[in-house]
Amino acid sequence: MAQSRIRTTLRSRDLLSMLSPRIAWRLTRGMARAPFNPSYAGAPLAVCWFTNFSCNAACHFCCKAAEIRSGIDRFPPLNAAQAQRLLIGIRRSVDMLYLSGGEPTIHPLIGTILTEAKALNFTTIGMSTNLLNLHHHRDLLDHLDVISCSIHGPDPGIHARNLGVSLEAAEQAFANLDLLAHQARQRPLKVVVNCVINAENINHVLDMVPFTAQRGFLLEIVPANERNQPPRDLVGNPRYTTLIDTLLRLRRAGKAPHLAGSTHYYRQIRDFIPFRCFPYGVPNIMPDGRLCSPCDIAGNYAVNVLDYPDLKQAIAASLPHLGAYPCKQGHCFKAGIIERSRLFGLLSGAHTSHAH
Fold first, then answer.
1. For the stretch 132-156, what's the b/e string if a residue is b when 16 or more beta carbons lie within 10 angstroms of its beta carbon?
2. pLDDT recorded at residue 293
3. What would the pLDDT profile of 232-285 be if each residue is shown by its tens digit?
4. Distance in angstroms (rounded) separating the CA atoms of residues 275 and 346
């Protein structure tokens, strides 16, 4: 037990060491304010902009399925001038930008967006993709520091069933994964393979460990979630528990150093332990510039970042809309934000984990 605590602590220190002095100062200053201001949700460290909710896959476990179904009508993407204004407003407040979707590579302006982001000198630019379309946009990789790609099984057949696409399309995604491996050998490009555990692939997730190790990629394993709730087909499922226990053993034995996430993270997802989140640590922005207040679960999009000089002022304007949000009460379970919530909690002295 003591050894596990030490490893978890070291992992948290590793996260802190990755921050530039400027980012670390912003984060520490903002989080020091949190205990004294009950309406304050956290300091922005980075931004996740959902550039579009159109998608060329149909993942049955997609946590953005509702937005994708109504996204074009509810959140129309920005034009080039608006996208530039939004990026400028974001850059005035944060140094790290992450683009997501939908599928960003099918956004007609994705090249323009990334070119502008590069010109604004974000310290880190990341993007998520399902890889189905990347061979048409190889030039995008020149603007990225981090790319997170969805691969949900060690062979195209399993992956095709998870994405709801043809075998041919899944084979193209695997070919594009080889393209990423080549690019990562040529220049500094961090590749993270995101594998979502669900009933369709649960027997194959462990095979993703050697699959990614052989290619030199990080592996991020995340259980599916059902609108902020643990998936019913994984809770109490002995196959799932055994899988996470095996991953924990691999971590403790040092046999899978490329597994993203701390020991704390795997303990959390093993038993689906809810936690307190700090939603404005990495705020989410919709395709049309609207800010999630405090996050997508609340469904509150009252403030548009385009109406303010910068992201920080837009966040301040959104605070009256917060109310008693569940993340602050420790009722959240979105596995993808466990690590950063723990980091913010350590800095602010707040407890992040809650027992059932």
1. bbbeebeebbebbbbbbbbbbbbeb
2. 75
3. 889 889 999 999 999 999 988 889 999 988 888 898 889 888 777 766 778 889
4. 13
With both helix axes pointing from N to C terminus, report the angle between 311-318 and 80-91 in degrees, rounded to the nearest 10. Answer: 80
Compute the mean pLDDT over every residue in the chain, rounded to the nearest whole number: 80
* C-alpha span between 176 and 184 (Å, rounded): 12
Q: What is the pLDDT of residues 278-300, one digit of tens each?
A: 667 788 899 999 998 777 777 78
Burial, 7: exposed, middle or buried (Cβ in 10 Å; 0-12, 13-18, 19+)?
Answer: middle
Report the C-alpha gap between 229 and 281 in whole angstroms. 21
Cis-peptide into 287, omega within 30 deg:
no
Report the b/e string of 163-186 with b at 16+ CB within 10 A.
bebeeebbebbeebbeebeebbee
Q: Are 218 and 212 in contact (CB under 8 A)?
A: yes
Spatial distance between the Cα atoms of 248 and 90, rounded to a whole number of angstroms: 37
- Single-letter amino acid code for the residue at 206: L
In Å, what is the CA distance from 12 to each residue of 98, 260, 331, 335? Answer: 21, 12, 22, 17
CA distances for 93 relative to 96, 231, 305, 312, angstroms:
10, 35, 11, 6
Q: Which candidate, 46, 24, 124, 128, places its Cα nearest to that of 90? A: 46
- Residues composing the chain: 356
Q: How many Cβ atoms from other residues are within 10 Å of residue 63's Cβ? A: 18
Structural domains of the chain ordered from first start:
2-348 (3.80.30.10)
Query: Does 43 score more than 70 pLDDT?
Result: no
Q: What is the pLDDT of residues 128-146, one digit of tens each?
A: 999 999 999 999 999 999 9
Q: CA end-to-end span of the chain, whole Å?
A: 21
